[in-house]
Amino acid sequence: MPTDQSSTATAAALLGESPLRILVAWDPANDDTGGTEALEFAAWLGRSMPVTVRVASTLLRPWPASLNKSGKKYKKWRKNEAEACAKAVEKALTDVELPRSQWDPQFSTFADGQNEAQLLTDEAERFEADLILFGSNAAASKGRFLAGSTTDALMHSSPTALGLAPRAVKLSKKGVTRVNFAYIDDRADENSPGLLFAAELAAELEVPLRIITFSPTGLSDVTLSKPKGMSSELIDEWNEQSLGMLDLARDRVIEHRDFIEVETEVGSGRGWGNAVDSLKWKKGDLICMDSHPMGTLERVFVGSTANEFLRHVTVPVVIHPYRSA
């Protein structure tokens, strides 16, 4: 079972005296990542806490790995690409109103290779990033999130926490105004390290914490003609268990940080879209989620249920790597 100390240590790594180190995955030439949502996400976080931002642009190399990278033509091409990216990044960071004081001295990097997920993982390690931010694939509906291939790969392997921004997301000018912790499946545990991290974050930012869970099949699916049927009994049992779990989670948070405002809610509806939309969302909302356990590996891993949930979120999400006790 995770301890308070491990969760507090995790939060301290992100909320310590040093600025939050944010790596933004952004490529102005790529339709999948060329939107500015990830950059806006970084600027939004910067309104609430100290941050240092670096933007990483990557290119999937179409030529063989055996190409002579020491050749003059390659070096010239790479230099030109890096300069073009830096120019575009400088303009984009200015456009999203991220103060220069929050830019890393090396605010733009460019890398090419045959595995973009690995290129970003390597850059995050060099930068000692606390968080890697991604925007949505351009094919997503406005206000929804759809992972591109590189994002999807890291959602199943990243040792660094990930931040995901829906397409054309609308963000509060005041920064983060409420932290949400989402229980997505039946692994709900009031001792979840992610829950205690969310409590630490809410306490640090002096904002409320909302603990939420969902019924994607919907309590309203019970037929009026058979209110006492098997379906009704199962839903009643689920509802009772969910409310009980939320009460335990709330008590655990108050025990951990008794001075923050905590509320709990259940989102219900026919399918994930209606369940998520049944809750009221604000422009200042941030969702925190745990990763699915994968042995002892400290990695982000998004299971199928969480992946379906993410397709319907309308606010930014932070997913933490799974960490065993």
UniProtKB/TrEMBL annotation:
InterPro entries cross-referenced by the UniProt entry: UspA
Domain of life: Bacteria
Name by which UniProt lists this protein: Universal stress protein
Pfam families: Usp
Domain UspA, chain residue ranges per copy: 21-160, 193-319
Species lineage: Bacteria, Bacillati, Actinomycetota, Actinomycetes, Mycobacteriales
Similarity comment: family membership: Belongs to the universal stress protein A family.
SUPFAM superfamilies noted in UniProt: Adenine nucleotide alpha hydrolases-like
